[in-house]
Amino acid sequence: MSDEYEALRAYAHEATKVITGLAGGGSENFSGQIGDMFKADLEFCAKKIRDRHEMMHGLIVKAKKTNDALLEALKAMLEEYEGIYDSVDKAGNRWQSDEAANAEVKARDAIAKAEGRS
């Protein structure tokens, strides 16, 4: 066999492994053999890859919408409770507990991170 044939055969073997690997699954990804080498069912593998891509895209869009909704809820909650103090002494000084102050800082940090500002 020529060097060119061996190079082409090695390329076809690697391409088959990549395509069937991207498709996931097993023997259903193959459509037969050429000599001792199995060949990928290109149409079947391409459909599986496209379907997986579409499913992942849908999940990403759903996660983004959920993230956006949670971010808006966190902003609204922070706005509603901003400046809430745990107690006011007789002189009118307002005191905020460390726990409340830390929660406010964490909420602001989460918002900044979600908006890409951290």
What does this structure look like?
There is one protein chain. By secondary structure, this protein is mainly alpha-helical. It is built from three helices and four strands. The relative contact order is 0.07. A two-stranded antiparallel sheet has the order 1-2. The chain has a two-stranded antiparallel sheet with strand order 3-4.
Features:
mainly alpha, rod-shaped
Gyration radius from CA atoms, angstroms: 29 Å
Strand percentage lies at 5-15%
Backbone structural class: mainly alpha
Helix content: 55-70%
Largest sheet: 2 strands, antiparallel
- What's the SSE pattern? HEEHEEH
Query: Which stretches of 5+ consecutive residues score pLDDT under 50?
Result: none
From the N-terminal CA to the C-terminal CA, the straight-line distance is 60 Å
> How many helical stretches?
3
The best one-word shape is rod-shaped
| Mean pLDDT score | 85
Strand order of the largest sheet: 1-2
Can you count the beta strands?
A: 4
Give a brief description.
With 118 residues, this protein is mainly α. The chain contains 3 helices and 4 strands, in the order αββαββα.
